Amino acid sequence: MLIHAPAKLNLCLYLGAPRDDGLHELCSLFEPLALADLIEVTPVAQDEVVCPGVEGENLAALALAGLRERGWEHEPLRIEIEKRVPVAAGLGGGSGDAAAVLRLAAGEVADLPQLAAELGADVPSQLRPSLALVRGAGERIEPLPDPVEHAAVLLPGGGGLSTAEVFAEADRLGLGRPANELDELAMRLREAAGAGASPLTYKELLVNDLEEAALSLRPDIGEALQALRVAGAPVAILSGSGPTAVGLFPDLTAAESAAESLDTHEAIVCAAGRARLAP
Hints:
This protein has a single domain, classed as 2-Layer Sandwich (Ribosomal Protein S5, domain 2), CATH 3.30.230.10. The strands form two sheets. Strands 1, 2, 3, 4, 5 and 6 form a six-stranded mixed β-sheet that branches. A four-stranded antiparallel β-sheet has the order 8-9-7-10, covered by helices on one side. It is built from eight helices and ten strands. The longest helix has 15 residues, at 179-193. By secondary structure, it is an alpha+beta fold. The model has no long low-confidence stretch (mean pLDDT 94).
C-alpha cells in the first residue's frame, strides 16, 4: 500500500498566552499542500518503521506503537517513509507521517484524535488533512470548504529550526494576544474562508505572530520573505515556527514563473488547499 502524508501550511498563526500544560493558545488556518511524504506499507514478521536519512525515533513509529498499545491487531507492518517534506521546516512533516499511520487503523481503534493529540499538537488536524480553522494548541479543529485553486513557492531555508526554541523566543519577546482577540480573529477567519474563497482574497489576515521570534533566531528568513515579494508573491509568510518562507500565488503557472526568477535551487513549487492521500 502506498499513501501520501501531505505537508501542512499555516496560512496564519495568531499566538495567545501560554497554558498550564506549557503549550500556547493558538488561532490558525491550516491547509494541506500537494507536497507530501510517500509512505509504503507492507506486511512483515515484526513491526518496523524506516525513514532513510532521518535518524532516531520518529512520530510515525510512536503512532504505530500507540495503536498497538490500544489493541490494534492488524498484522505486523513495515512502514517506510520517503521524505519529501523538508525536516524541521515548519511544514508538519513528522505530524503528517504520524497521522498517516493512524489512518491505517481508522474505524478499528477508538478515539484516534486523542491518540493523535498525545503524539503532538499538529497531529489531530492531519488525520483528515483539509483547510481548517484550528484553535487551542491544535486540538480544536473546524473543517472549512476547500478553497479555490492557488499555489505556493516554498523556501525551506535548510530546516533545522526548533519549534520549542521559537516559542521560547516568542515568550522572551513578550509576544501573544489576549483570548478575546483570538476569538475575534477566529470569527473573521471563519467568515473569510467559509465560502471556499482563495486565501489571496483575505491576505490582510494572513499573519504569523511567530515571525518576529523566528527572525530573531534566523535573520536569513527575512531575506527569503523579501525575495518572494520581489518575485511577485501577493503574500509572503512564515509557515508554522519556520524557517520555511512561503509565497502564495493564484495558480501554478504564476508560482513556477516566480520560482524561476529566484536565485536559488531550493525553491519548491506545489499546489495548495487540497490533500492527496493515495497515489
